[in-house]
From TrEMBL:
Belongs to the Gfo/Idh/MocA family. Keywords: Oxidoreductase. Pfam families: GFO_IDH_MocA, GFO_IDH_MocA_C3. Residues 126-243 form the GFO/IDH/MocA-like oxidoreductase domain. Residues 1-118 form the Gfo/Idh/MocA-like oxidoreductase N-terminal domain. SUPFAM superfamilies: Glyceraldehyde-3-phosphate dehydrogenase-like, C-terminal domain, NAD(P)-binding Rossmann-fold domains. It comes from Streptantibioticus parmotrematis. This is Gfo/Idh/MocA family oxidoreductase. InterPro entries: Gfo/Idh/MocA-like_OxRdtase_N, GFO_IDH_MocA-like_dom, NAD(P)-bd_dom_sf. The keyword RNA-binding does not apply.
Length: 335
């Protein structure tokens, strides 16, 4: 199998190595908007430097992996669809609803495959939580808490292009909340604050956010995120039911210190970032994509899943700006 990868940045380099090491990938072609960066990545992995995005699409590859800057995702998804190529794309499809819907319509019209990179669906902890909830081991689920905390802010130049904290970061929590519980978010009430660098507010964004989410069966969930957590990279989910409760993301490297006399101390080596924390999940989703291309399995995360998570993020943005509860259906009316 020959696969083209477009985007040679941090996540692109990680995916490129996973594809290079896959036994079913005979050749990996790499391209980037910066030719020097793709050349360096290809040389470091023994892959083929395609030289340009056009060259990737003209090389007769069997599939495309899109890890470019967010602004290019929708165009590349459409291009893959028109070429009849299965595509894997890192989230988001686009930072707005019109761009997302337009890309999905191209995929639908072409009848092609689009797998979205919500890697938490492939994490062992989240998968075990999903199985426990679906098996009824917690009894009636009544409360879910989702937490995402970055150890430090992204570069200032990234923030205006990111779509904001809800669309860029918390969208992972919105997706995994839906996936684990099997429920849809019906209503949100969200807020945010800025106590750190000025560039967040200058971009209309926040550096810390919280959302109260009511699911369609009445289950209550909270989702919080911050760009400032000096203790390390912290991603967790707590699920409480009438019979039991469990937690995802609590292990020897969770950057959390107990104040109890017999509680856990601060970890010696806390998680430093998302690529480290979710490395097995990232590799698993790419292996699954290769199986999808081979026809050995179904698509585990179709493009429509990205749209549903984005609708929740959009509702949160409206709620934050207008200081009111927002029904997700209100946002969906505009799709």
């Amino acid at each position: 199998m020959r696969i083209g990868l477009v985007g040679a940045g941090r996540i692109g380099a990680f995916h490129a190595k996973a594809l290079r090491d896959h036994e079913d990938v005979a050749e990996l072609l790499v391209a980037d908007a910066d030719p020097a960066r793709s050349a360096d990545l290809a040389a470091s992995l023994g892959a083929v430097d395609a030289g340009s995005v056009d060259a990737v699409f003209g090389a007769g590859v069997d599939a495309v992996v899109i890890t470019s800057a967010t602004a290019a995702h929708a165009e590349l998804i459409g291009r893959a669809a028109r070429a009849g190529l299965p595509a894997f794309c890192e989230k988001p499809i686009a930072t707005d609803l019109p761009g997302t819907v337009a890309a999905l319509r191209e995929v639908e019209a072409a009848g092609s495959v689009l797998q979205i990179g919500f890697q938490r669906r492939f994490d062992a902890g989240y998968r075990a939580a999903r199985e426990a909830v679906r098996a009824g081991k917690l009894g009636r689920l009544h409360t879910v808490r989702a937490i995402t905390s970055d150890p430090e802010p992204p570069p200032a130049a990234y923030v205006p292009l990111s779509g904001g904290l809800y669309r860029d970061c918390l969208i992972h929590d919105f997706d995994i909340l839906r996936w684990v519980t099997g429920r849809e978010v019906a209503e949100v009430y969200a807020t945010g604050s800025n106590g750190g660098a000025d560039f967040f507010a200058a971009s209309g964004d926040v550096d810390t956010a919280a959302a109260l989410l009511t699911l369609d069966d009445g289950t209550l969930a909270t989702a919080t995120a911050t760009r400032y957590n000096g203790a390390g990279y912290d991603v967790r989910m707590e699920l409480a039911g009438e019979d039991d409760q469990l937690a995802v993301g609590v292990d020897a490297r969770t950057p959390l210190t107990s104040t109890e006399p017999d509680g856990a101390p601060a970890p010696a080596h806390p998680w430093g970032g998302f690529l480290e924390r979710f490395a097995p999940a990232y590799r698993a989703e790419l292996r699954t994509f290769v199986d999808v291309v081979k026809g050995a399995t179904g698509n585990p995360c179709e493009g429509g899943e990205a749209l549903k998570a984005l609708l929740v993020a959009e509702a949160c943005e409206v709620s934050r700006r207008e200081h009111r509860p927002v029904q997700v259906a209100e946002i969906a009316e505009h799709v």
